[in-house]
Write a structure and sequence with these properties.
Number of helices: 11
Number of strands: 12
CATH class of the largest domain: Alpha Beta
Oligomer: single chain
Bound molecules: zinc ion
Helix content: 25-40%
Shape: globular
Order of helices and strands: EHEEHHHEHEHHHEEEHHEEEEH
CATH topology of the largest domain: Nucleotidyltransferase, domain 5
Largest sheet: 6 strands, mixed
Strand content: 25-35%
Length: 319
Amino acid sequence: MDYIVFDLEWNQAADLKTKLENSLTFEIIEIGAVKLNENREQTDAFHELIKPQVFERMNQVTGELIHLSMEELENCRTFEQVAADFVKWCGKDCIFCTWGNMDLWEFQNNLDYYHMTPLSEKTIRYYDVQKLFSIAFEDKKSRRNLAYAVDFLEIPKDIAFHRAYADAYYTAEVVKRIQDSHVFDNYSFDTYHLPGNKAEEIKVCFDDYAKYISREFPDKLTAMNDKEVISTKCFLCGAKTRKKIPWFSSNGKHYYTIVTCTVHGDIKGKIRMRRSVNNKIYVVKTMKQAGADVVRDIISKKNQARENRKEKRHHRASL
Ligand SMILES: [Zn+2]
């Protein structure tokens, strides 16, 4: 299996009117990639600029960041041509690696825009190297920029940043320097395509937390009525748990619960409501063991939510 470490540069509307006229938000104008074999040695590279077909003017911020002008792109091949070659170049047996969680989503969105064959009809498992860097070298939670990681790992800076090939190259250098193979257990999931049915839903258990990604639901209420969505079985042993604080929402987007497993103690559940490409709702749920401080934090969130509701009711009654 190969690691395809890639990076994109994209342009966006230069003004509000153009933005509103177009269904595409980010138009890809460069693809850079490095191929690593299973020993994480570089075996190949891919780089090509792309002729824009949606936005004819360069967004000022984009242009300054990546030092590209429209003139340089005029004689390039189109996205359809470059992307088709890139997908072929990637091969059948590969895992994508990107710095952060945007590139794979945007690539699929651009494929879709041009009615091209999707990379997959399913939710894609990939590596967010920004996350892997944090797990391997820092506190798991922080998210650093690529330049920070390059300095931290003392990677020689022989190419300028913020161009697709350079950023793919540096990201690949970070991938190469992760010694602990256990770090690669930490997959990410790109939700451009969501699980199509209950059987395809994603349930994974990482070192210290579990993640669940649901299929799509028409609305929040239907989602919160789904057995699997609100299930609070212990992610470590599968046992039924006792409710300490039942599911509640602080803002209508995030839901929390605290449950207790007789063997594994208090567990915090968190549900995030997300909007899918099809403008439906899907759920990302995480379960994690909770110390006393976390339980206190959830209790105060719940009290705050109750206060807010009271205030609203009071406000309405006084109108
Ligand atoms: Zn348990």
